[in-house]
Write a structure and sequence with these properties.
158 residues, three-stranded antiparallel sheet, single chain, 2 domains
């Protein structure tokens, strides 16, 4: 199987932000699979590692066998990734994420923190094939936004 890179996200620096970058790439992959549909037979979207003068860095790519269908799918995925990356303010999202984790660690018991982390993780990592339609996805996004607002002291939350 061969890999064709489709791009990376403008967030974080390797190696100190590796976990954050991989988490963001996972979200981007889910978005791509939602808007581009399932990969053709013999193809898949995933994280690939590329070499650079300063080390290795992760990006998204299309893995494919000797299929001719992968080229059009890779082009669509690349366009979707560019749109997704431009649409997200990664700096603000990362800052909010880090502040939320710090605040939760200081203000909640470990049991409540673990319960919230599990529910958010379950919502974010839910397989796309279990999501019935775009309306269900919108409901999930609104719930996650409400969790964020409830824990944001600047928005009247905790």
């Amino acid at each position: 199987m061969r890999w064709e890179p489709i791009g990376s996200l403008n967030t974080g620096q390797m190696p100190q932000d590796e976990g954050w970058i991989l988490w963001c790439l996972d979200i981007a992959q889910q978005y791509i699979e939602l808007v581009c549909g399932r990969a053709p037979p013999g193809c898949k979207v995933g994280v690939m590692w590329q070499e650079h003068d300063l080390g290795h860095y992760p990006s998204l790519g299309v893995c494919y066998e000797d299929s001719t269908q992968w080229e059009e799918y890779a082009r669509l995925c690349e366009e979707a990734l560019v749109t997704f990356d431009r649409s997200v303010n990664w700096f603000d999202l990362k800052e909010y994420f880090e502040n939320s984790v710090d605040e939760l660690a200081n203000n909640e018991s470990m049991v409540n923190l673990q319960r919230r982390e599990v529910s958010v993780r379950e919502a974010l990592l839910r397989p796309l094939d279990e999501i019935a339609d775009i309306e269900e996805l919108k409901v999930m996004i609104r719930k996650l936004q409400q969790v964020g607002k409830a824990n944001d002291p600047n928005r009247g939350g905790a």
